[in-house]
Design brief:
The complex is a heterotrimer of chains A (about 290), B (about 300) and C (about 400). Chain A contains 11 helices and 2 strands. Chain A is mainly alpha-helical and about 290 residues long. Chain A has a single domain, classed as Orthogonal Bundle (ABC transporter involved in vitamin B12 uptake, BtuC). Chain A has a two-stranded antiparallel ribbon with strand order 1-2. In chain A, helix 2 packs antiparallel against helix 3 and helix 6 crosses helix 8. Chain A starts with a helix and ends in a 14-residue tail after the last helix. In chain A, about 55% of the residues are buried. Chain B is mainly alpha-helical. In chain B, helix 9 packs across helix 10. Helix content of chain C is about 45%, strand content about 20%. Classes of the chains: A mainly alpha (about 290), B mainly alpha (about 300), C alpha/beta (about 400). Chains in contact: A-B, A-C, B-C.
């Protein structure tokens, strides 16, 4: 039983990492209807910015943390302006966005390799590594902190979306971008805000990821998993992204814990395919239909 | 300048081209985007290698069997996923491509992740060129036929095609199977060129590379795909001198191409005798100050 | 219309550049500039300069450059000829490796190639070597199939390191016979050939000696969270945890294992030793045993370390030692062959018997591997790898 609890905690811990990353994806998808593959690169840069603010600039941790998130926020907006806006203007099919996104992610990953170098960086130890023991279950201090920070951020986000004017504008644009524009909503601004939010979350996810593991240019690849989580939970739904991520984390962990660790990734993809075949809108996604 | 070195690059470009041609039919002409075609290459590669190594079959039959295997698997995948909306189909292919690779990583009979060395070296620049020429001719005939026109109709306006009576599902499936067969043959060519197979050679990166080539060359253009394959396979070699920066430039140039000329190099046009004639006429008319469409230098 | 002709022009330009790229300079080149061709012997190097193993690849190349400079300063080889290295990045990719091998042998006309460090790159280049008749000395490629396939030795492939079966046997033997562990757990990378190889042989030899493998868990390269597997391993209660992986994963695993409360010692192969291990997981890896190629306390080794540190300001990684021995092997073969002809060098390599910093390298004619090379077992104490003993294993 304690083994099961331990694996559950492991799953929650992985899941909360996926959740932070998946939220960024879902946000952008709900507005733009495409999967922003460059998100992974932004997360990776968040980890690097956090690291450098902490070590090279010697800033105290909370400042470095928020600083990194703000920097990625800006970066995401720049990417939107540079790589996606021109495509939006000429009404390119969504595939072009994806190619552009992939090009951006290759660019980001390699510019880090070319300039900073491919060696891994480790965050200085902010929290002690000795775990908290609850019975025979070990919970890492960092995991607990991450969980709390994720929960706070997500709660703030939900509050923003539901209770502020801009939040409502985002909801409207997500529902129907053309109608919203007709109603007088500055959809261009909404898009900038959404990317900024996505970027902010990416920065937080990046720093936390870097602290939990290490910082290296290929961090972006992990985000493929969070993408699966977002689809599972339902693209376009924020609560869906979070729940999907946590569930994915737990399912993966239980699979490796009780069946075979070799097939952990395979299960994730099988799940993805099953979801797409049987319930494409995921657990909580919006139902989109072909317009005639 | 060493011919052996250049021929190596051209052979690789030819192998990529084979897969790109198939993908071009699916993406360029039928309008469906796949991020999992490396998986079909893998199936074709491993199957054809099994044919030559374990059963001692000669090269060409082995390649064809590899292509057939890939087509069969694609038909199963197609039955399951072709009813999904565009972007979801895309994601599903991504999932399948990765799943195939992960399965191969674990199957020790084929060497697993450690790879399978010792495959006979059958691929040469000559047979790659010949196979590609045959492939192009077959593809051009498909595209020009009634079937090809149906596929283009599906690409342009799916709902309307259905109303007009075109069996959309059937054509999507045919398109998928042919593209998978081409990719499978390409995989077989790859296996017998490297004499070594490893699942990580067929990752998401490879699938993305193939799709990028099709877009770069221009959707709906076979000659575009040929040019695209040649240019984008040799690009890393040309940029080799900048070693670390070449991938940076690669990523950036992909984005720039998308922004400035998303219709790709050929933009739907083809290099055929009639189009070349038209091109020359246009250039000549331009020089003589005539409107572009005039023929033979006659005045209005 | 303008755009289309522009596009055509662009494409023709690119094809032209490809043709010209044949004449372009490679990534790195040392040696005399503008020296007469006859006085320069070109040696190729290939390895990962980007990707996960970039740290090792870069170190190898730097070591070779440094050694060539030293040799040239002392008068060169074959009575005054200078050595020049031409190095390319394989990006850790087999396809790239083949391209690079073709470029080195065809374009740059090297007499021999040093590297690569990855078996996945070393295996597919064999046909290229055979066609060009140029020998290759792999540095840390430990998969048996690099030099011997289906019982036949590949005429132009050699290596200076021991092979995976041997490493696995050494680890198993040391764990059982010397450390007296009878229950071991393994956590390996299912997507990596090196890891799979070591695991297979460790398991085989450990069980043959009478030990039990209480847990055998896997992960896939790219994973960073190993807690599910580690939790299972903890339940199984091993006395030692064998990690046939590379240093990045090892560091992450070690940290997470300690966080979960696993206190048993760790053991690993030559993928582990790196200065990075200390930056990432210093506390977690204390007391780890490693099957290594080299005894870091050996005075000759120390000397090499100091020279490297003085020149580059960095610590010498494991690959550097093996690159050094590859150079020693090659230079010896060139001198004994009495010429820079690749085929003659290959023949000389087949009977080579030199002393390197990693031990005695006596190339076996049937395997092109160093025969009976001893491994050095080191243990991590503080931030040093402390030499324990030399150990060799019997392979049947």
């Amino acid at each position: 039983m304690s083994q099961f609890l331990q694996q559950l905690i492991n799953g929650l811990s992985i899941g909360s990492v996926y959740a932070l990353m998946a939220v960024g994806y879902s946000l952008v998808y709900s507005i733009m209807n495409f999967s922003n593959f460059a998100h992974g690169g932004v997360i990776m840069l968040g980890a690097y910015f956090g690291y450098f603010y902490l070590t090279a600039a010697g800033l105290p941790f909370p400042v470095a943390f928020i600083g990194a998130a703000l920097t990625t926020c800006l970066l995401a907006v720049i990417i939107e302006r540079g790589a996606y806006k021109p495509l939006r203007e000429r009404k390119a099919p969504f595939l072009y966005f994806i190619i552009s996104a992939m090009g951006t992610s290759i660019f980001l990953e390699n510019i880090v390799i070319a300039t900073i170098g491919p060696t891994f960086r480790t965050y200085p130890e902010i929290l002690s590594r000795t775990p908290i023991q609850i019975g025979s279950v070990s919970v890492g201090r960092l995991d607990l902190t991450m969980f709390i920070i994720s929960a706070i951020c997500l709660a703030l986000l939900v509050f923003f979306i539901d209770h502020t004017k801009m939040g409502k504008a985002i909801q409207a644009t997500a529902y129907n971008i053309k109608a919203s524009a007709l109603m007088g909503i500055n959809t261009d601004l909404v898009i900038i805000v959404v990317f900024a939010l996505g970027g902010f979350f990416a920065g937080i996810a990046g720093v936390l990821f870097g602290m939990k593991y290490t910082v290296y240019p290929q961090i972006g690849i992990i985000t493929n998993k969070s993408f699966i989580a977002a689809v599972f939970g339902g693209l376009g739904s924020l609560p869906g992204a979070v729940i999907g991520s946590i569930l994915l984390g737990i399912i993966e962990t239980i699979t490796s814990g009780y069946f075979s660790s070799q097939y952990r990734d395979l299960i994730a993809f099988v799940l993805l395919i099953a979801v797409l075949i049987f319930r494409p809108r995921g657990l909580m996604g919006k139902v989109t239909e072909d317009k005639a | 300048m060493d011919f052996n070195y250049i021929s190596g690059i051209l052979t690789l470009a030819g192998i990529n081209l084979m897969a790109v041609l198939g993908l071009s039919l699916l993406t360029g002409f039928t309008g469906m985007f796949s991020f999992g075609h490396a998986g079909f290459m893998a199936i074709g590669g491993y199957t054809s290698a099994m044919m030559t190594v374990k059963f001692g079959l000669p090269f060409i039959p082995a390649l064809l069997i590899g292509g057939l295997a890939a087509a069969l698997v694609s038909s199963v995948i197609g039955k399951l996923t072709l009813n999904l909306k565009g972007d979801y189909f895309c994601i599903a292919t991504l999932g399948f491509g990765e799943a195939i690779r992960l399965i191969l990583d674990n199957v020790q009979y084929f060497g697993g992740a450690r790879g399978w060395p010792g495959i006979p070296h059958h691929t040469s620049l000559l047979n790659v060129i010949i196979i590609n020429i045959v492939a192009i001719i077959v593809l051009a005939n498909i595209v020009r036929s009634k079937h090809g026109r149906n596929m283009i109709a599906v690409r342009e306006e799916e709902l309307a095609s259905q109303i007009v009576g075109i069996n959309v599902f059937k054509y999507k499936l045919i398109s998928l199977m042919i593209s998978a067969a081409y990719a499978g043959i390409a995989g077989g060519l790859m296996a017998h060129y490297m004499t070594f197979l490893q699942p990580k050679m067929f990752s998401l990166v490879k699938s993305t590379e193939l799709t990028i080539i099709v877009i770069f060359g221009g959707l709906g253009s076979i000659s575009g795909s040929v040019l695209g394959a040649l240019v984008l396979t040799s690009l890393p070699e040309i940029l080799r001198t900048f070693s670390e920066w070449r991938l940076v430039i690669y990523g950036l140039s992909v984005v720039i191409i998308m922004i400035t000329r998303p219709s790709g190099l050929m933009g739907g046009y083809e290099f055929t005798p009639s189009s070349m004639k038209k091109l020359f006429t246009r250039i000549r008319n331009r020089k003589n100050g005539l409107p572009n469409h005039m023929e033979g230098g006659k005045t209005a | 219309m303008y755009k289309k002709s522009l596009a055509l022009l662009l494409v023709s330009l690119m094809i032209l550049t490809l043709a010209l790229s044949g004449c372009s300079k490679p990534a790195t080149q040392t040696g005399t500039e503008g020296g007469a061709a006859a006085d320069v012997i070109k040696v190729g190097w290939m390895g990962s300069l980007t990707g996960d193993q970039a740290v090792w690849g870069q170190c190898e190349l730097d070591t070779v450059k440094m050694l060539f400079e030293e040799i040239n300063a002392k008068g060169g080889v074959l009575g005054g000829k200078k050595l020049e290295v031409i190095g390319y990045d394989t990006k850790g990719d087999p396809q790239e490796a083949v391209n690079v091998a073709k470029r080195l042998t065809g374009q740059d006309k090297v007499v021999a190639i040093i590297g690569p460090n990855a078996s996945g790159s070393a295996i597919p280049i064999a046909p290229v070597l055979e066609e060009a008749k140029v020998p290759d000395i792999a540095t840390v490629a430990t998969n048996p199939k690099v030099t011997v396939l289906d019982g036949k030795v590949k005429p132009f492939n050699f290596r200076v390191c021991f092979i995976d079966p041997y490493q696995g046997a050494v680890a198993a033997g040391y764990a059982y016979d010397v450390l007296k562990f009878t229950k071991a757990a393994i956590l390996y990378d299912v997507a990596d050939d090196y890891s799979q190889g070591l695991t297979e042989f460790f398991e085989e030899f450990f069980k043959a000696k009478g030990g039990t493998i209480v847990a055998k868990e896997a992960f896939k390269f790219g994973d960073v969270d190993f807690r599910p597997q580690l939790s299972k391993i903890k339940e199984a209660g091993p006395e030692v945890l064998f990690l046939p992986v590379f240093f990045k994963e090892a560091a992450l695993i070690a940290n997470q294992a300690r966080e979960l409360g696993i206190t048993v010692p760790l053991m690993g192969g030559d993928g582990l030793p790196s200065e990075q291990l200390f930056t990432m997981a210093k506390d977690a890896v204390q007391g780890t045993y490693i099957v290594n190629h080299v005894d870091y306390d050996d005075p000759e080794v120390q000397d090499l370390k100091t020279r490297y540190r003085n020149k580059y300001g960095k610590e010498l990684e494991l690959n550097g030692y093996l690159a050094h021995d590859a150079v020693v092997l090659l230079v010896d073969a060139i001198e004994r062959a009495g010429s820079a002809d690749p085929v003659k060098i290959t023949e000389a390599l087949e009977t080579a018997d030199v002393q390197g910093v990693t031990g005695r390298i006596k190339i076996g004619k049937d395997t092109h591997n160093p025969e009976g090379k001893e491994a050095a077992i080191v243990k991590i104490e503080g931030d040093k790898y402390v030499f324990q003993q030399k150990y060799s294993a019997q392979l049947d």
